[in-house]
Amino acid sequence: MPPNSLSFLLLICALLIAPIQSRGFFGIPGDYCSTRTHTCCENRDDDCTVPILGDHLCYCDMFCDRGPDGGNDCCPDFEATCRGRDIQNDQRIDGESCSMDGETKEKNCEKCTCQNGMWKCDGTACLIQPDILEKLHTGRYSWTARNYSTFWGRSLSDGIKYRLGTLFPERSVQNMNEILIKPRELPEHFDARDKWGHLIHPVADQGDCGSSWAVSTTGISSDRLSIISEGRINASLSSQQLLSCNQHRQKGCEGGYLDRAWWYIRKLGVVGDHCYPYVSGQSREPGHCLIPKRDYTNRQGLRCPSGDQDSTAFKMTPPYKVSSREEDIQTELMTNGPVQATFVVHEDFFMYAGGVYQHSDLAAQKGASSVAEGYHSVRVLGWGVDHSTGRPIKYWLCANSWGTQWGEDGYFKILRGENHCEIESFVIGAWGKGSKRRRRFKMRKLRRFKKMFK
């Protein structure tokens, strides 16, 4: 080949490749991420690829969300499959023609079958509902939504069963006496992390186990023990021990009662997470108790399942109920630390990405099959007022237990002062046992609370 011809060919190749390098693979038709067995990958994963344009590879991992320069090597359908920003490709294929009767195909969480030349889907309600997601993206709401890859392909009933996990409190617990709180001047914004810093523990991840009853109880205990001891105790208490060992009249990874969780941590105590690590998020099972009650009376002391030498068990006082009055919850939180709140999670909450959450009726408009709810317990860390929508919206700042990839780095805001989703109905606080700090309530009231948990 003559030198001039070779130079011309190299120039043509460079011109063809340059747009790919500078603008990525955008605009190239086809299915890429959607063809993977695990469509998308969390965080950075260099093996999360699909072939494109012959010898090239495009990516389907969350590293593609790293900003305006992050999409050059991402698959064309990354936005649609992994983040739900182009919902047209996510719609059901009901009614479309197919060529081979009996062929099956999965679309999101639905199983579709080719029948008489037409696709027929089973109608299962999915945890990520693309049509609702699209309306949340384009409508005027106080919060934004996202298509989480960890939730894509999961059924709504599966999410309610394994991502929540607090059973509705029994009547005797609902009627707990409320403590008396002395009012104080309250700021417009408050964040426990600003006041107590590293004494407030990070966001947990309960995984595929309905264990919010255990995770939130140990989370509040960890925070309050650190605060009241002024940092001398700063352990993350083991939600796994509570989940595995507090099984009397509890349902493990399918839910539990808060009063029984608090009873266990008051009577026996719970070791640190380093001693009894959390594993139920992967197994979906509470597992066998590896620190049985008899070990608490053993002269040799408790033995850590992890092999760690520090098997200190921490106890809490009986929990107390905080009034549902907005100001009382704020005063309690600002004075004594994060509180535990139980609220109703609706189907759209799983798609929350940021802003002030307010439940929409979009699923109800579709029909009863698209609606589901369940109770969930979280830590409330503070409050504030959002002005981004042009009108002030009061909110509670909460730490969820779905990991830092969800919401605002694992946190969320929810409408404050209107008992939205029952967030203000059942708020709980407790103290580390043995503390010498003066209580704000008298001991006779403490004894009254004890009677509720015998």
| Biggest sheet features | 9 strands, mixed
| β-strand number | 14
**CATH superfamily label of the largest domain:** Cysteine proteinases
What would you call the structural class? alpha+beta
Q: Give helix and strand order, one letter per element, not per position.
A: HEEHEEEHEHHEHHHHHEHEEHEEEEH
Helical content band: 25-40%
Task: Tell me what you see in this structure.
Belongs to the peptidase C1 family. InterPro entries: Papain-like_cys_pep_sf (IPR038765), Pept_asp_AS (IPR025661), Pept_his_AS (IPR025660), Peptidase_C1A (IPR013128), Peptidase_C1A_C (IPR000668), Somatomedin_B_dom (IPR001212). Residues 36-87 form the SMB domain. 26% of the residues lie in helices and 16% in strands. It has 454 residues and is α+β, with helices and mostly antiparallel strands. It folds into 3 domains: 19-83, no CATH class; 88-123, no CATH class; 156-452, Alpha-Beta Complex (Cathepsin B, Chain A), CATH 3.90.70.10. The longest helix has 21 residues, at 3-23. The termini are far apart.
Key attributes of the depicted protein:
single chain; 454 residues; alpha+beta; Cathepsin B, Chain A; 3 domains; nine-stranded mixed β-sheet; three-stranded antiparallel β-sheet; 13 helices; 14 strands; globular; disordered C terminus
Short description:
The protein is an alpha+beta fold. 26% of the residues lie in helices and 16% in strands.
Summarize the SSE layout with pairings:
Blueprint: H1 3-23, E1 49-52, E2 56-59, H2 78-83, E3 104-107, E4 110-115, E5 118-121, H3 130-138, E6 143-145, H4 156-162, H5 171-174, E7 190-191, H6 192-196, H7 212-228, H8 239-245, H9 258-267, H10 280-283, E8 320-322, H11 326-336, E9 339-346, E10 352-357, H12 362-366, E11 373-386, E12 393-399, E13 411-415, E14 427-429, H13 443-452
Parallel strand pairs: 10-13
Antiparallel strand pairs: 1-2, 3-4, 4-5, 6-10, 7-11, 8-14, 9-11, 9-14, 11-12, 12-13
